[in-house]
Amino acid sequence: MPSVQDGRASRIREKLRLGKLPRAFPSGPRPGIDVNPPSVRLVSGPAEVCAGCDEVIHAGERRWEFEYDATLRVRFHETCERVWEDALGLDQGE
Q1: Are the beta carbons of 92 and 85 closer than 8 angstroms?
Q2: Residue 4 vs residue 94, higher pLDDT
Q3: Residue 61's beta-bridge partner residues?
Q4: Sequential DSSP letters for 80-94
Q5: Is the pTM of this model over 0.85?
Q6: How many CB atoms within 10 Å of residue 34?
Q7: Where are the domains of the chain?
Q8: How many Cβ atoms from other residues are within 10 Å of residue 89's Cβ?
Q9: How confident is the model at residue 44 (pLDDT cuts 50, 70, 90)?
Q10: Residues 6+ apart with CB under 8 A from 92
Q11: What order of strands is seen across the sheet that includes strand 62-69?
């Protein structure tokens, strides 16, 4: 039986394949390696839907937030963000 994480990873890879998720960080620098630009944040806040798995990120739960421009902001569970990076072949050095 597939795990929840496997299901999330499959959804994220499919969304990337279909062009429904960004294929890069918004402004180049990567968290943990370069100085974090204000467009990349690890925050907690109100309940929102994860751009990767489409499940709720609960209020107060930490999430990665990527702001590409005034009209595009994506939020990921911490685990979904790592899957997204892996699928892109990125490495934060963590």
Answers
A1: yes
A2: 4
A3: none
A4: HHHHHHHHHT-----
A5: no
A6: 13
A7: 4-26+38-88
A8: 6
A9: very high
A10: 30, 31, 32, 33, 85
A11: 40-44, 62-69, 72-77
If one counts every other C-beta atom within 10 angstroms of the C-beta of residue 50, the result is 23
Residue type at 64? Answer: W
- What mean pLDDT value characterizes the chain? 83
Characterise 8 by phi-psi region: left (phi > 0), alpha (psi -120 to 50), beta (else): alpha
- Write down how long the chain is: 94
Nearest-angstrom CA–CA distance, 32 and 17: 26
Two tokens, residue 47: 């309940």
Residue 43's Cα: distance from chain center in Å? 12
